[in-house]
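Two proteins, back to back. First:
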Amino acid sequence: MPEHYESSLGPILFEPYAQALAALVPEGAGQLLELACGTGRLTRHLLPRLPAGGTLEASDLNPDMLAVAKRLLQDPRLRWSVADAQELPFAEGRFDAVLCGFGLMFVPDKPKALREMHRVLRPGGRLLATTWDSMAQNPRAAIIAEVMEEVLGPAAPDFLSVGPYSLYDAELLHGLLQAAGFRAVRIEKRALESRCTDAAALVNGYVDGSPLGQYLDRKGGHLRAMIKKRLLDAFGRQSKIYGTRVPMQALLIEASK
């Protein structure tokens, strides 16, 4: 799954926001912590932001994701670790900036994780994060939900609405950040484009590079291939509306300790 996630979903969905988030790192921030680094999509853009002598602690809860990232990125300034955002194994006030690209949505105890991020930041340090906006603002995700509902009905998985596209309420996020001790909170809805010329690669990414494939296998051995075909047809119809550039939208979050 991590290989398909990196090769198919990474460049299409996550690359534009990785660049946008990395651009927000304050100049001179030499001690960075990245949470939910996955296969290193954001990590590679953070390395050029480091000053001489800086370090980047890249962590994720999933060792398989980290294994892919380690293979793709080698840099003496990089330190890899398996870490739970709710129980960070780092000293108080250690980092100039904490970054989390599309990871906060999956954390069970979000208030606790945000308090941990606040704890490990130095005074004046910055939290920089992204979460997806609603599926209504992300047509590629919406069409997946539609196909799942058409094929599976009540058995359709809700992993999109309870996972990646579950934390889009800016007012709720603002409150969570303030309750964790953050100040100068700024949340921007950023619209970008998901560019794809190979619909089959995108379909493989969504099915084979996410928990969806495993869910379909549990429901029936034939479903993975069937859903791939239905998604390929649906993305083909969608391309008649958008071409190869489909809009997507996420929330860019900035806050200070």
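And the second protein:
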Amino acid sequence: MKKVLIFSTLAISLLSCSQKKEKEMNMEITSSNIVEKINEQVKHYPKEPVYQVYVKNSLCVYELLVNDYPIANEREYGQQMTPFIINNAILKSGKQKITLRLYPAPAEYSRSGDTFSPNTSCKLEIEYVNKKDLNYNAVAVNEFKLPTKIRMAGEHNDMEIPEFEGAGKKYYEITYEFDATVPYENEGWSKGQDLTKLDQKLLEKKTVEFYNYYKNIYSSNKADELAKNEYSSLLRDAVSEYMEKTDIKEMWDESRSNLSVKKEWLPFNYRTKFYGNGKIIALLQKSESDVRLSGTSALAFSYKEDGTTYGSFIGVYLYLPEGKKLEDGLEIIR
């Protein structure tokens, strides 16, 4: 019993020390040094695999998640011709889960109304390329298709016609598994607490507080404050994609690009959404009239550039590290 108590005290002490160092590191980050600080942490390897996914959909729109982390939200019907890079959702080597959340294509593209047509299809092609390969040759990893059921037809009822298993439904979700091998290991949200088991009213309150705090950062053009908060998340992206310094700078420039524009904030109508198997929370648009807004961040604004109006949705994904109290607030995932 004594040994267990000593071990528990040591574990708590080490965790507290680790969190203190992380906090101190983030306090050192500024808009002017964030690129250099991230670049110092990125390692390079003899082989640098970058995993990517092609989605080939017909008569449906979709959300794509890897390890329950959102990768894509394609609610406008059309073909995605370029692949989605998914390394930032792959925290370490091993089994990975990839999830499709499907919705019927708009009525003008289908005769099935607001339900899936029997002819609905969606294929995932997973591959990787080695960044050290000058020819950038793609290597196939896996391919997944939607499950079908057989309908018998023909004059003698002897003709087999494959149809989508979800035909007639308004929503369909399926998860597949594939293996990935990467040379890095990111913490991400793996050491986060299960937010679904916490006080939900307090959780919502703290989440809204953080979103309002982030709105203030963007409204007041606080580049240093943004850098401190975005550092860990941008570091995960840079490490997982083996970025060069120029790539890191481009990533940071894009992240802060909307700080200085004149903003017209959209109404803050939100719904809560959990990701990361309950370890991540986000506030999404609560829109019943425009399906294109579904799955987009509740923190959003419009701005004008060269006479054209654009919309910007600020993705904020929060978690609560192990050992931290919810009363003390949430953090952006690492």
